[in-house]
Amino acid sequence: MSALARQQRELLALVKGRTQAFEDPYVRRVMVSHRLTVVRTIAIRWRMYQIEAQCRYTSRLCKRLGIFESRVERHFSEFDSSPHIDELSAQFLNAQSDAVEPLVRAVAATELALLRARAGQSDVVETRWDRNPDLVFRALENFEQIPPSEDANYLLRIACDLPNFLECLRLSTTESDGVPRHGTAAKINLQAWSCEPVRAPVIRSEEWTDGS
Amino acid sequence: VASFTIAQPARGPLLATTFTGDDLVLLRRLVPLVDVIELAPETLVHSRGGRLELRSELLEALVEASTTVKFVVHGVGLSIGSADSWNDDYLRLLDELLDHISLGWHSEHLGCTTVDGENLGTMLALPRTSEALDLVCERVERLAGRYRLPFLLEHVAGILPEPDSEFSAAGFLNQLAGMAPCGLVLDARNLECDRFNHGLNIANFLAELNFESVRELHLAGGVEYQGVALDIHSRLTCPGTRQLAAEIARRSPNLSLVTYEYLKEAIPVLGHDAICDELELIREELLLPHVREAEVGVRSAERLKA
Fold it and tell me: Which residues in chain A are closer than 8 Å to B22, comparing Cβ atoms?
């Protein structure tokens, strides 16, 4: 491996915050530099802006739970985090669809499916909820209290050929296998949330100033 | 689409600015104010079926604007300095763009954004070594074979500590432009960042650089963040940046284009009016002196002839 190739590989690991032994003397110098923190902060904050703009519900929920910054940082470190907003959003939502928190999982999986449905992808996605998803999204949209879990199960179906891409069924507890039985599953009216993502995040004016 | 070359105008360089997608209202306001629009293909894309492609509505707008302005491409995603490989996806987007509009030239940053195909999340400046020089020269040759377009490279403002170098900053650019079929983009803000972050002596840099190769000049505004000057394109230009740019313009006999750059993420903060005013200011301060100088030259020649 050439000196340049080795140096760049080690710099990648360093910027991504991955632990390994560093052989290149320059990389070892970078490792203890304050400038490395600046580079990582900018890279992670940039991704936070993008994700906030394109994945508004998942990011708002993660913020409420106090896990947004750490999730973005972990995503940046562990994945080949795309610089393209569409790819980055899909990657992040996909990762959060496997989150340990059931509500984060449901919101992220729904938001990812909505992005894909809007882009014309024809697959049908179903997500399971322990509370009315309509109320959850409305609460996230309006920065209101998230409703508590209920003694019920909801099935949210996302597909590009549904009105507003969505259909929701309230299942009785006996239908928690997800198969709605005739006469017992109630269709929930869904508000058309303002789901259209903002394409370009905005650099807030108070940020990126000296000493912040 | 037939290509064209931006020749060095007799009446001084042309004015350009950035268009990075989304804000078509701004594009319509910019078109009458500038001669050239700078595009970065990777900012004009969306993901479809796991593949990035240029957005058709933006292509339509650009084709419409092409009756009034010319275009150049200034990419950020080629990663010409990655030791393993450059980014073929970037070239695919450039090819797609060239199917729709003609370009005066294309340019890239003298940096590295991917390693083994993985995005770094930042752009690393290259070490000024023979190895990096040979790598970039070989790739510039390949680009020259692939595209019948002039190609320019821009030095990058480094944030990380400077690696050990075999060449000075200007010496490296001189070698590059001398060995490979490319011109240079000089960015006044980048030089200021390097002065702030690495102690670059700009006077020495300017004294050493071969300005024959400089075809394009960039101006942008940035900020300082935690004691580091950032070339983030989030602000209007400072008087000091324009002053340095004017000095570069005076020294560059082949300068064809002066470009004000901003990020699309900064548009809501800057506002359309401020961006348009900035272009008028740059034209007044940097371009009109060349026009007046050219007019004086023409009048003198006519007097001599008479």
Answer: 199-200
